Amino acid sequence: MKKLERFFKVPDQSFFLLGPRGTGKSTLIKDIFKEAVYLDFLLPDVFRSFSARPERLKEVVFGNRDKQVFVLDEVQKVPELLSVVHSLLEEKKDWKFVLTGSSARKLKRAGVDMLAGRALMKHLHPFIATELGTMFNLDAALQNGLIPVVLNSQDPAASLQAYLNLYIREEVQMEGLVRNIGDFSRFLETISFSHGSVLNISNIARECQVERKVVESYITILEDLLLAFRIPVFAKRAKRVLSNHPKFYLFDAGVFKALRPSGPLDRPQEKAGAALEGLIAQHLRAWIDYNNLDAKLYFWRTSSGNEVDFVVYGSTVFTAIEVKSSNNISAEDLRPLKAFGQDYPEAKRILVYRGRETLEQSGISIKPCEDFLQSPLATASPSDQHPR
User: In angstroms, rounded to a whole number, what is the distance separating the alpha carbons of residues 255 and 251?
Assistant: First the structure.
């Protein structure tokens, strides 16, 4: 794959760059900071050296006085380094620390908050349609996802399966995050049925034949490993009785398709609809992050059953988005957005579908999925882009 522009704006100060394995963090940082001092803690010798003596980082920094940027790749492997970084930042030199990580779990334990204000928290996501440009293929994205390490392979389907196995083996089993890897593997399959749905932990626990608290801990592990996320109900100035349970998503449509088993009782449109909704979700999250929007992602669901898939709400944006995996739109498809518009007439309303025409009905913009994904909320400035 040719070099692509990533829609990521490099902060002027020190920053964390978090993202799942394979999203291109190391490649991006190496390309941007070619002259930086680079420490990769996935390398066994580097890991051992700094685990035994974290204060060695000071020796490295002071020994490279002609350098300004220091990259600590996969810093969660040696979380004790955060206190050393903090002490170096306290010296108020012109040093810039770039701290990448594929897991927030150990960083949370080590107290990332102690760097608050001195190191910004940034995220790198799978590719988005705008980054791929003419190379973006909706059907391929829904089948194999948009993780760079998968798309760069000769056999995306096989690479995706290997990617999942790597996470189970290295990030879960080797880190000792769960006692029974068999239970966790069964949970992964079961939780895939909740992708794009309101989360019911009790039902998942019943299916997995484990206690509810175990399922809760497993979901937290997925979130800490940046493999999944939850979005809450939009309840600002609510005029109706709303659901109070969040919706659950795996971070990439391909990961969902790889985990979700298929059987004779499955309806193809159910799986296709969940995959498309997840693809929209991951684009919205990336767009919010990359454009530094002061906004959050929600969904809206009333007790009577009206549901809008996504609500993006912030200081400069208020948009409700409904996703339909169909080529045609009926009056029934518009009903949730109409109800939302009655409660929130200030909101922009968009229905995304698999058809080809751009339409407007009842004040609702109806957009083809490919067009919407190219610019979900705004347009990033080319000057904010950096090569992968």
Answer: 7
Residue pLDDT, tens place only, 146-173: 999 999 899 999 999 999 888 877 778 7
Using the predicted structure, report yes or no on whether residue 110 has a pLDDT greater than 50: yes
Buried b or exposed e, range 262-272, using 16+ CB within 10 angstroms: eeeeeeeeebe
Report DSSP state, residue 193.
G
Given this model, what pLDDT does residue 244 score? 85
Q: What is the pLDDT of residue 388?
A: 43
Residue-by-residue DSSP string for 118-168: TSEEEE--S--HHHHGGG--HHHHHHH---HHHHTSS-HHHHHHHHHHHII
For domain 5-124, give the CATH superfamily. Answer: P-loop containing nucleotide triphosphate hydrolases (3.40.50.300)
Sign of CA dihedral 76, 79, 83, 84: negative
User: In angstroms, rounded to a whole number, what is the distance separating the alpha carbons of residues 83 and 243?
Assistant: 42
Q: Which has the higher per-residue pLDDT, 369 or 387?
A: 369
- Specify the amino acid at residue 278: G
Domain layout of the chain by residue ranges? 5-124, 129-374
Query: Residue range 232-244: average pLDDT?
Result: 87
Cβ atoms of residues 58 and 37 within 8 Å: no
Burial of 342 per CB tally in 10 Å (0-12, 13-18, 19+): exposed
Q: Cβ(122)–Cβ(15) under 8 Å?
A: yes
User: Which residues make Cβ contacts (< 8 Å) with residue 65, sequence separation at least 6?
Assistant: none
